[in-house]
Description:
The chain is α/β, with parallel strands linked by helices. The protein has a single domain, classed as Rossmann fold (3-Layer(aba) Sandwich). The chain has 9 helices and 7 strands; from the N terminus they run αβαβαβαβαβαβαααβ. It is globular and about 50 Å long.
Amino acid sequence: MxxxxxxxxxxxxxxVTGGSRGIGELIVRGLAEAGAKVYVVSRTAAVCNQLADxxxxxxxxxxxxxxxxxxxxxxxxxxxxxEAHQDSLDILVANAGTTWTAPLxxxxxEGWDKVFDLNIRSIFLLVQGLSPALRRGATAADPARIITxxxxxxxxxxxxxxxxxxxxxxxxxxFSRHLAQELAAGHVNVNVIAPGYFSSKMTNWLFDDPxxxxxxxxxxxxxxxPGTQDDIAGPVIWLASxxxxxxxxxxxxIDGGYTNQ
Length: 261
């Protein structure tokens, strides 16, 4: 084992949900640049295909898989399509997520259900369906990896009225810990990355509002800045490589110190 291949994921097969924008896109780019074959899942076919075509033109191996994992049918489509093309899966990054912000007195049930269906139920269905593919190529020395994308807002109380989001992400953290125990015997590691503020469709409102940016990032994050592609892709690659083979059941904040306050 050398330092060069200790962190290598070259030749591994990854699947990233919500991979065409925001944090998911940063992860897809990082995995592809590191030599993994990446299936990028997004409900928006045009954006998904555009990203796959761009990275493929640069020499990466990226496959677009359009599906809405907020639905049961969409999750089944992902599982069936993947298994029709690949024997095994090395890395599942469950990133797709959404939020809904409203005052508690006006918080709609449909908003609550939308957040929980995508942020928790979709991950349950995908793990359930893709577990055979994850176990198929896994070994004790090189387990398969499930990396769920939680949130700093699932660790500490958020500073905005995203009640379902914080509850769903906290639930995802615990669900992932439970999965880590359940799947360890089959050589599947499960860990959570809990990001702080990164530029994404979900956080556009923050980056477009100088006063909120100053309140929540400049003054609210000890490091005083949002995260970058390297900040999120690096931990994913570490967890997916030989260097992360003995790590499971953890929640890792990647947030510039946001949750440590």
